Amino acid sequence: MTSIPSAAETVLGEWHVISPLSQLRTTPTDTMLLDRHITFGHDSRGEPFACDVAEKRMLPVQARYGCLWTCLGTPKGDIAAIMEADEPDRRVVDCGVFTVRTSAPRIVENFLDMAHFPFVHTNILGAEPNTEVARYTIEMRENGNEVWATDCHFYQPQAALSATGGIETEYLYRVAGPFITLLYKTCPAQPERFDVITLFVQPMTQECSRAHPVMFLIDDVSALDSLVEFQQTIFLQDRIILENQRPRRLPLSGGAEVPTMADRMSVAYRRWLRDRNVAYGTIS
């Protein structure tokens, strides 16, 4: 009889963020990943490492995008490419780590939602009466391995720390892995280019996660502390909503929650998870 894979097994071959590089220490640090106790840090040579404690097994690691990544199984491929990260005029802004008592898919789905801007991020990312989410386009890219939402537009009173007034902001949303999502948005300083905001979600358990936001910005004016504070303010507003959502695991069945036209990216993400047999942090 063919065994049914556990929820964790469907994502064992994915790369997951476990720490900002700035927080690596020579004394091992404990964390959780997919219900497993792991430790990480710098070894005596200054090289990053991660270890599965129960199995006493060293794990593969990569240092990329300001973070330490690891994989509990055999990697299915490389970490998703973010071309903008290599552009020399961008600032890499590590916005810290947030523990959230909800599933990793719930956090990703919230990141993809524009409809909550005026009500949760009032006078920053949105404000009444500009509450309508205009129709946008869903695309599958990279042979179906990524989901994109393009031609997204939303009026924002303060789209970024560097913005000096409200602007009509263009968004591109990208799901590059089950728990990796990116936002490309109009750069106030150079409107022909996009700022890039990433959210790397570490699934600690099925109902508890750590969010690692990292930004790649075209902004040579704002103070680093102010950039971090701006993004942290936004995420802490989201955390209140996320921790009060029930169920904590993301429902994947079609009738579990009633979507609206504004939820087309959420519907596409859930369908994409189902098609990839990603069960971790979800309910059928």
Given the structure, what is the number of helices?
Answer: 4
* Largest sheet report: 8 strands, antiparallel
Rg, Cα atoms, Å: 19 Å
CATH topology-level fold name of the largest domain: Naphthalene 1,2-dioxygenase Alpha Subunit, Chain A, domain 1
CATH superfamily of the largest domain: Naphthalene 1,2-dioxygenase Alpha Subunit, Chain A, domain 1
CATH class of the largest domain: Alpha Beta
Low-confidence regions: none
- Write down the domain tally: 2
Q: Label the CATH architecture of the largest domain.
A: Alpha-Beta Complex
Tell me the overall shape.
globular
Order of helices and strands: EEEEEEEEEHHEEEEEEHEHE
Please state the average pLDDT score. 87
Helix content: 10-25%
Number of strands: 17
Strand content: 35-45%
> Which structural class matches the secondary elements?
alpha+beta
End-to-end Cα distance? 23 Å
Query: Multimeric state of these chains?
Result: single chain
GO biological process, one term: methylation
Enzyme class: oxidoreductase
Protein name: Putative methylxanthine N7-demethylase NdmC
Domain Vanillate O-demethylase oxygenase-like C-terminal catalytic: 101-274
